[in-house]
Hints:
Oligomer: single chain
Radius of gyration: 22 Å
CATH class: Mainly Alpha
Number of domains: 1
CATH architecture: Orthogonal Bundle
Bound molecules: aspartic acid
Number of helices: 20
Order of helices and strands: HHHHHHHHHHHHHHHHHHHH
CATH superfamily: Sodium:dicarboxylate symporter
Helix content: over 70%
Distance between the termini: 39 Å
Low-confidence stretches: none
CATH topology: Proton glutamate symport protein
Number of strands: 0
Largest sheet: none
Amino acid sequence: MSKTNLLTLLILLGLIGGVLLGQFALFDPQYQYDNNYWSGHWTKLAGDLILIRPLTLMVIPLVLVSVVVGVTKIGDPSRLGVVGGSTVVYYISTMLISVTIGTALVTTIEPGVGVGNAAEVKLAGEEQFATNLIMRDRVEAAEQTTLGDAWLNILKQMIPTNIVREMSATRPLGVIVFALLLGLALAAGGEKTALAIRVFDQLFDALMRLVQWIIWLTPPGVFLLAAWTVGKIGLGDLVGPLAKYMSTVLIGLAIHAFIVLPLVLVIFTRRNPLRFMWQMRRALMTAFGTDSSSATLPVTIESAETEGGCSKKAANFVLPLGATVNMDGTALYEAVAVVFLFQLYGIDLSFAELLIVVITATLAAVGAAGIPSAGLVTMVIVITAVNTSVGGRNIEALPLAAIGVIIGVDRILDMCRTTVNVWGDAIGAKIITRIAPDDEPT
Length: 442
Ligand code: ASP
């Protein structure tokens, strides 16, 4: 068996073993959703130490070096404009498609209508919200943020004043912009900067080597993290009162991941999507196990370039940016979750309000960081926007505590939407490879 197949098998075994350990040894109804109990659990601590921290350690150096290398390979600024423009068009259009699928599904399936014990579900959710202090603080802080503030914040991150501060706070956007400019300047420098370009090239190779070592930590890491998630929630909830809501999200994600994105890939590259999915398997499984597109980024770049046939010109640029802003799964999930909550609380949304959901959910997904549960927090932006419109019709707004209803099961959905987020980034890299292959004559 080849090394990569062995690794795939081990990651798969890790995921399955983790689910079994979580369900049959760790799950205890007494501690279901109990944040105090689970936040310090040994599976979480060990999973963090073994996998999340080493991967996260790689993210900022890799973002800096990979974007510089990608840009210096593209070289010409007008060429970079074409690649950048196509990338942004790809991100926005696929996110809009996914959010539309989510909105169409949730208004057709109506998972929040006719929930048997709706009053109980709401009450339990609101209690859950009140006791989950960390989440409550994050949500309440987000509530103070208008959509304008959120955009201003993104702009400020894109025009940083201190690159080291951005790095130390793990805010990739500023680092990407800086790396882009540095790459352009290096490319423009000709002979004078040729040595620095080579240094970045070689650093990139060394970082990739490091990633290849760290990847071997994925099987035990995802084993522990999957055990933690399932131990905390229990698979029983998959058939509980939220089953219809969860299925709506999962059906939407499946349509987007297995039909829409593959179609886009076939249309633009004529490549076999299943084959590409197999080539990207380690990144997809890591995303599933870690709940974080950012932490998965090193594996995504490695898989895309070694097995997936993506060029450095495309992948080095599309993947780091994509891990931060391109989130098809999150956009779809936010739309379904918000409309579901309004349905549960008996608030009918008009067509115009559904449009607000489509647009703000896309923007909120762009603003979500590639870390666990980020989508749950930025969803507040969508709820606030819809509430403003609902308030104009003199209808009572949705209380923010309603988010408590879906906090409990969020982690399981997060695993799936993060996988779709990474899959969307990978397909983007493959498509842009057609526009910017590495082996073209320069
Ligand atoms: N966990 C997701 C990601 O890292 C973001 C989210 O939807 O919460 O891509």
